[in-house]
Design goal:
Helix content: 25-40%
Structural class: alpha+beta
CATH topology of one domain: Arylsulfatase, C-terminal domain
Shape: globular
Distance between the termini: 43 Å
Number of helices: 11
CATH class of one domain: Alpha Beta
Strand order of the largest sheet: 5-4-3-2-9-8-7-6
Length: 358
Amino acid sequence: MAQLVQPSYVRVADLSLTQDEFGRILRRIGLTRDEVKGAPSKDLLFLLHQRFFHAMPFENIGVFEGEVVSLDLKSLVDKMCGPDGNSPRGGYCFELNKVFAALLLHLGFEVEPKGSRVFLDDGVTPRLPTYPLMTHMVLVVSAGAQLFLCDVAFGKVGLVNPVPLDSANTGPFNGGHFRLKLERQTFRSRHAFQYDSYFLWYTEEAHSETSKWTRGYSFVPVQDFDFMDALPCNLQVHGYFESPFTQRLWCEKRSQEAHVRILGKHFLEKTSEGTVQRDIDTAEELQALLLHHFRLSISKSMCQHMLGVGTAAASEDKWRRLVAARAGAGSANSQSRLVLGIAFSLAALALVGWMKRP
């Protein structure tokens, strides 16, 4: 009998940490219990955000290992921290921001998750032919008398520090590795309900009036969004053939000294000494880069699969290769996962065929 590979709703809804899990997260981000003692404060929030962001890589390796990326908190802590707080793994937004939220809640902060729409355009010409889905999750956190946008999981633009919501429409500011600006716009729905939507913009260019800004994502602070609402969003991110997370390997980490990213077959490393960019040609090279820069020990066969997905041109071919990678992951549930993966694949290919009809 095939085993269930998704945790129950009750487990997904539970954000409580045991003392052991709390201790492992602190060790993973390089803090002690003494350093986080005391009432919730702005200084503590900034410390936790910086340490978490620098310690946890943004990565989607779990997408290749099996068709289910669990949002069960215990599974996430085990994955990212290991039994001793020394795991090299990370995750993407629904995983990283959920663990960070659990840490904040454990320390007494008031935290609300918010669904987010990713644009990655100039605000004039849309990147996609459709309105963006809610494929990202951010946190709104109260510290002192202020509300802050917290996001430790937006790839290369992940926030080093929380952003005060009251900084909206006050102009650009230094985000650590990017210049950022938060804009607030008021909208009115068809039924005359009025609400404010916040947009995070970023640029890598030096300060000038001609800087090219990118609209990163939007969120609505008054939106009714629960951590449970991330379940269907998460399924779309790792289970749909057009999701960027099923198109290629994405592994990225920032420290105070360097920025390292592997995106498909492309490698990038930025340090104070300059920038190195090159293509990754072999599974052995990818395997060595993951081990050296991320402490990730990935099999040669899985590296071959991940390169294959990244280099395939058509979405259909990418999905077939991804299903093959999942089938070869070698987990205890590989048979049931293969069946589900094939079902996903057939549905996706059918949809591609329908979309191509005249």
